[in-house]
């Protein structure tokens, strides 16, 4: 799916407008919707011509969108890769065409670091660590003693946030909770509400004694809440829930007592991305990884924070 959203004014330098080809992962979550809107409005604000396409969570769609942008000779290509591997060939084609590539949100594994200029996005491993640290507080507050049985709802298989959030969480668990925490089930819910709902229902069948859910995003947690309630249990009480993102619906669930804590992952990357695109286009240098600043929220902060949430 491709849509061309043209900015209406000239770029900040007053010269020829920058044409940016952007390949989005999909529209799988509230986070993604906010991210797409941020990219579109920031491109408009910057006065760029934006060519935007939605890959519907399929790598082959992203590869053909990038090939299209190369054929159209855009000035810069930006994309949020659905998975980490399998990009070398198309990135080499962009390099051969002398079109700089900027990654946003998610990283890739490449054999050649020169195939992309920078990544504008979050530190997902740290988000996983922060999720484990905030879970310690949630457990203490709930008075749960020993025997923490965790269900993990993973993001899309092979995607950087799924791999790295699981890694960061496990790192803290192995270092500090070898004896008292255990991940009893872990499966992908593909970052969607429907996925979270379906997989959580199966988890509850196979492991009815789960007392913690770690969901790699709010949408899967919200889907899981429906299955927890359908099983006659109270989300946030019988099953403590920590998730990642901080979208409005996540904050609503938290203010209703159904999610216990949220680790923020900021999707509003548009303005920063446009600055980077300009610098790269003008031949300037940028840092290899431009990290996003984020916070953590416990349930008792949810009501006060809800009106200020921007996504
Ligand atoms: O890559 C960021 C992740 O992708 C978000 O946490 C998730 O909601 C989205 O689908």
Beta content: 15-25%
What is the oligomeric state here? single chain
Largest sheet: 7 strands, mixed
- DSSP summary: helix tally: 10
Order of helices and strands: EEHEHEHEEHEHEHEHEHEHEEH
The unique ligands bound to this protein are: alpha-L-arabinofuranose
Average pLDDT figure = 95
Per DSSP E runs of 2 or more residues, the count of β-strands stands at 13
Helix content: 40-55%
Notable traits:
TAT_signal, Peripla_BP_I, binds alpha-L-arabinofuranose, 6-stranded mixed sheet, ABC transporter substrate-binding protein, 311 residues, alpha/beta, 21% strand
Secondary structure blueprint with pairings:
Elements: E1 2-6, E2 19-24, H1 30-46, E3 49-54, H2 59-71, E4 76-79, H3 88-96, E5 101-104, E6 118-121, H4 124-142, E7 148-154, H5 160-176, E8 181-188, H6 193-206, E9 212-215, H7 218-230, E10 240-245, H8 248-255, E11 261-264, H9 270-281, E12 289-291, E13 296-298, H10 299-305
Parallel strand pairs: 2-3, 2-4, 4-5, 5-6, 6-12, 7-8, 7-9, 9-10, 10-11
Antiparallel strand pairs: 1-3, 11-13
Helix pairs in contact: 1-9, 4-5, 6-7, 8-10
Describe this structure in words.
- The chain has 311 residues and is of the alpha/beta class.
- It contains ten helices and 13 strands.
- A seven-stranded mixed sheet has the order 1-3-2-4-5-6-12, with helices on both faces. It has a six-stranded mixed sheet with strand order 8-7-9-10-11-13, sandwiched between helices.
- Helix 6 (193-206) crosses helix 7.
- The longest helix has 19 residues, at 124-142.
- Bound molecules: alpha-L-arabinofuranose (AHR).
- Alpha-L-arabinofuranose is lined by residues 28-29, 31-32, 105-106, 161, 191, 217, 219, 244-245, 265.
- Alpha-L-arabinofuranose binds at residues 28-29, 31-32, 105-106, 161, 191, 217, 219, 244-245, 265.
């Amino acid at each position: 799916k491709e849509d061309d959203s043209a900015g209406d004014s000239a770029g900040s330098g007053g010269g020829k407008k920058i044409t940016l080809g952007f390949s989005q992962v999909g529209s799988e979550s509230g986070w993604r919707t906010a991210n797409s809107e941020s990219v579109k409005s920031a491109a408009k604000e910057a006065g760029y011509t934006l060519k935007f396409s939605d890959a519907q969570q399929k790598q082959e769609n992203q590869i053909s969108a990038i090939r299209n942008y190369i054929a159209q000779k855009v000035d810069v290509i930006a994309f949020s890769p659905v998975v980490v591997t399998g990009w070398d060939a198309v990135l080499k084609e962009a390099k051969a065409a002398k079109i700089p590539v900027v990654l946003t949100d998610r990283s890739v594994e490449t054999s050649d670091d020169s195939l992309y200029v920078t990544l504008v996005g979050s530190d997902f491993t740290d988000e996983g660590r922060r999720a484990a640290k905030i879970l310690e507080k949630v457990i203490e507050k709930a008075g749960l003693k020993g025997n923490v049985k965790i269900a993990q709802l993973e993001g899309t298989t092979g995607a950087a946030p799924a791999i790295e959030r699981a890694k960061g969480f496990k790192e803290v668990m192995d270092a500090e909770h070898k004896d008292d925490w255990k991940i009893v089930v872990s499966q992908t819910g593909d970052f969607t509400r429907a996925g979270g709902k379906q997989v959580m229902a199966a988890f509850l069948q196979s492991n009815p004694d789960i007392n913690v859910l770690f969901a790699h995003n709010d949408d899967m947690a919200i889907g899981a809440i429906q299955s927890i309630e359908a099983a006659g249990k109270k989300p946030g009480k019988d099953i403590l829930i920590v998730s990642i993102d901080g979208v409005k619906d996540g904050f609503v669930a938290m203010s209703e007592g159904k999610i216990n804590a949220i680790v923020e992952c900021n999707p509003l990357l548009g303005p920063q991305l446009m600055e980077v695109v300009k610098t790269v286009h003008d031949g300037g240098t940028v840092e290899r990884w431009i990290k996003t600043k984020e916070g953590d929220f416990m349930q008792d902060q949810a009501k006060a924070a809800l009106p200020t949430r921007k996504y």
